[in-house]
Amino acid sequence: MQNVKLLIKQSVELGSGTLYGALGTLVERGWIEPLQGIQDSRKKEYKITHEGILAVQTELTRLDELLSNGRKLLGGESE
């Protein structure tokens, strides 16, 4: 949760239930997988999978297109 706060520069307050729900969804989709850790530790760490990297790349492409279209609408980019 601390890493998420740093990543989003505290612009969004993320509750633990929301975070754990999102992590569960990402694991179910095969985009992340849990790292083996100390059994008694409450700290859980995950690593991104190959499928997760592909999902991020696809989303970045989609967002780039949205930004490009928005700039065109504002007259900041020629067609």
Strand content: 5-15%
Radius of gyration from CA coordinates: 17 Å
Class by helix and strand content?
Answer: mainly alpha
Summed over residues and divided by their number, the pLDDT gives a mean of 85
Q: Tell how many strands the DSSP assignment holds.
A: 2
- The helix count comes to 3
Largest sheet: 2 strands, antiparallel
Structure in words:
The protein is mainly α and about 80 residues long. The chain has 3 helices and 2 strands; from the N terminus they run ααββα. It has helices at about 1-5, 15-30, 50-75, and strands at about 30-35, 45-50. Strands 1-2 form a two-stranded antiparallel sheet. The chain is elongated, with a radius of gyration of 17 Å. It starts with a helix and ends in a 6-residue tail after the last helix. The mean pLDDT is about 85.
Give the SSE map:
Layout: H1 2-7, H2 16-28, E1 32-34, E2 46-48, H3 50-73
Antiparallel strand pairs: 1-2
List keywords for this structure.
79 residues, mainly alpha, two-stranded antiparallel sheet, 2 strands, elongated
Précis, in short:
With 79 residues, this protein is mainly α. It is 54% helix and 8% strand. The protein has 3 helices and 2 strands.
